[in-house]
């Protein structure tokens, strides 16, 4: 066997491995692109329901009569001036699969929980710190645009004064939101 054949035989596994890794990367990239495209289609499909959070009716939505054990629900979170779809806010089995199936729209409006620091800083001032999240939750009958329930949830208890350092202010968990929704609907 010549030196050239020996070199080729040694390089062949590396070449095959490189080609296989490249193929795996291409397949994963294509799956990611398809997933993002599907996600964008879902967001577009439910986008008209965001107006329900501003009190507008969605005539194409399903009627809500208060009798369903697991009413089809879509949730939105206010981010700046717009409402964004909030997957995972509705309990398992309550998620609407289409705009036409949606009976309820859950609207989440977060605000920072702010407290004055308990101890003054070097200048004697009492600075404020964000230490948690206050979440206003409103539930609407989608087809009528009528508010069914409203509440306020907090990620941490209210304080008169807060700690000097806060690593990261916690948000209200989706489990707490789902619990509130179950209570309001009676399940």
What's the SSE blueprint?
Blueprint: H1 3-46, E1 73-79, E2 82-85, E3 104-117, E4 128-141, E5 146-154, E6 161-162, H2 174-185
Description:
This protein has helices spanning 3-46, 174-185; strands at 73-79, 82-85, 104-117, 128-141, 146-154, 161-162. It is of the alpha/beta class and 187 residues long. 22% of the residues are buried.
Overall residue-averaged pLDDT value: 82
Tally of helical runs: 2
Number of separate strands = 6
- The quaternary organization reads as single chain
Helix content: 25-40%
The secondary structure category is: alpha/beta
Q: What integer value in Å does the Rg equal?
A: 26 Å
Q: Describe the global form.
A: flat
Strand content is 25-35%
- Give the H and E element order: HEEEEEEH
Overview features:
30% helix, 187 residues, 6 strands, 2 helices, single chain
Structure, briefly:
By secondary structure, the protein is of the alpha/beta class. The chain has helices spanning 3-46, 174-185; strands spanning 73-79, 82-85, 104-117, 128-141, 146-154, 161-162.
């Amino acid at each position: 066997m010549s030196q050239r054949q020996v070199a080729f035989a040694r390089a062949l596994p590396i070449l095959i491995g490189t080609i296989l890794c490249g193929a795996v990367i291409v397949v994963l990239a294509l799956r990611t692109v398809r997933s993002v495209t599907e996600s964008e289609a879902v967001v577009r499909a439910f986008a008209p329901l965001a107006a329900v959070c501003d009190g507008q009716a969605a005539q194409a939505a399903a009627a809500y009569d208060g009798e369903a054990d697991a009413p089809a629900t879509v949730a939105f979170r206010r981010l700046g001036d717009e409402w964004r779809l909030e997957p995972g806010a509705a309990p398992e089995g309550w998620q609407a699969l289409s705009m036409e199936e949606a009976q309820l729209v859950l609207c989440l409006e977060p605000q920072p929980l702010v407290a004055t620091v308990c101890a003054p800083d070097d200048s004697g001032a009492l600075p404020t710190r964000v230490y948690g999240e206050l979440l206003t939750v409103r539930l609407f009958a989608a087809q009528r645009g009528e508010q069914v329930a409203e509440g306020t949830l907090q990620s941490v208890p209210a304080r008169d004064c807060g700690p000097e350092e806060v690593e990261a202010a916690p948000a209200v968990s989706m489990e707490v939101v789902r619990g509130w929704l179950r209570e309001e609907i009676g399940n």
